[in-house]
Write a structure and sequence with these properties.
Layout lengths: L4 H32 L1 H22 L5 H22 L21 E2 L2 E2 L1 H15 L1 H7 L23 H17 L8 E5 L5 H14 L4 E5 H13 L4 H12 L2 E7 L6 H16 L3 E6 L3 H19 L1 E5 L4 H21 L1
Parallel strand pairs: 3-6, 3-7, 4-5, 5-6
Antiparallel strand pairs: 1-2
Helix pairs in contact: 1-2, 2-3, 5-7, 6-7, 8-9, 10-11
GO molecular function, one term: ATP binding
Family: Belongs to the DnaA family.
Protein name: DNA replication protein DnaC
Length: about 350
């Protein structure tokens, strides 16, 4: 699932619109300053005239013209700055305006895609995957503790399913609230249907709403992309996606262990989590696997990286998917009975 030419062109048109918008803002700033400080325009005109005059001297072979120009321009610019302050304007009021100062709203830095460009691509990929619709249904606002029982007790900890999820929910909220201030990672594990994917989606939506770049993959899709990047050098989409996997603010790998696991998968998994740790990028991993099985399948090195650098959240409880289906049937049954009455 790569970027189509039309989508690339749409992103570049957005950059053009940003440039036009910010040019208009800067033009209004100049008009405001010129209106309030007429002498400011005189200084600008003097700089323009001076530059032309010294340009002619340079063409005529006057080597000293550059030094003289620098001195006179420095005096005029200093006068402009003092005049701007006297009018109550900030020092940077007439500086160029950019949405992204890193690439100056071009999308590229030294012929490489800027982080803002990559974020735009990830947003498009989310729309293609229909994940936006899922996040509208699965987020912190729609999360309910009603599916977690006080009677379901973990024999090892003595804590109920509800207590465990309350604690996990707090950790997830803290993860979002502190995101960007440091590097944090989450490892969600437990039985099928206890809310691991739902919690990942809750976090994804919050961070996307805060304009962080978030990339979500099922484990099988994730390793498929890594394989294509390694073995199919002509697959540009896979190469681009590989780049996004390492650069995005948050990477989510869902259902680890559902893919076909071999030495290649184990090696690629270690490389990914290790590189993201080194570059201080956050990752969330969810799995139905036990910790012992995780170590067996993905090597002790990966297991060590995860247990040392991730917050481990074990979720327990009944299968919520089954509970929801039973509730829908029950509600439908009650509705049918009422109609018959």
């Amino acid at each position: 699932m790569g970027l189509k030419p039309s989508q690339y062109q749409a992103i570049m048109r957005d950059y053009e619109q940003r440039q036009l918008k910010n040019h208009d803002i800067l033009t209004r700033h100049y008009e405001e300053v010129y209106k309030q400080l007429p002498e400011f325009k005189s200084l600008d005109d003097s700089i323009s005239i001076l530059s032309v005059q010294y340009g002619r001297k340079l063409l005529n072979g006057d080597d000293k013209a550059v030094d003289s120009l620098k001195e006179e321009l420095a005096i005029l610019r200093s006068s402009k700055k003092e005049l701007l302050r006297s009018g109550g304007f900030p020092d940077d009021y007439l500086d160029p305006v950019y949405d992204c100062k890193d690439c100056k709203d071009t999308g590229y830095i030294d012929n490489k895609k800027c982080h803002c460009f990559k974020k735009a691509v990830i947003g498009i990929l989310y729309e293609q995957s229909n994940l936006n619709q899922i996040l509208e249904q699965e987020n912190f606002n729609t999360f309910s503790l009603d599916y977690y029982s006080d009677n379901y007790i973990d024999k090892k900890t003595g804590r109920s399913s509800r207590q465990t999820m309350q604690d996990a929910l707090k950790v997830c909220h803290d993860f979002v609230d502190n995101f960007g201030a440091g590097t944090s990672n989450l490892f969600l594990y437990g039985d099928v249907g206890v809310g691991k994917t739902f919690l990942s989606n809750c976090i994804a939506k919050e961070l996307m709403d805060r304009e962080f770049s978030v990339l979500y993959f099922s484990a099988s899709k994730f390793f498929s992309i890594l394989a294509k990047n390694t073995f199919d050098k002509n697959n540009i989409d896979a190469q681009n996606m590989y780049e996004y996997i390492f650069d995005c603010d948050l990477l989510i790998i869902d259902d680890l262990g559902t893919e076909f696991t071999n030495t290649f998968v184990a090696s690629q998994f270690f490389t990914c989590i290790n590189e993201r740790l080194l570059s201080r990028k956050s990752t969330i991993i969810s799995t139905n696997l036990s910790l012992d099985t995780l170590a067996d399948l993905y090597t002790e090195r990966s297991f060590s990286r995860i247990t040392s650098n991730y917050t481990m959240l074990k979720l327990i409880g009944d299968d919520i998917r089954i509970k929801k289906k039973l509730k829908i049937r029950e509600d439908h049954s009650c509705y049918t009975e009422q109609k018959e009455i």
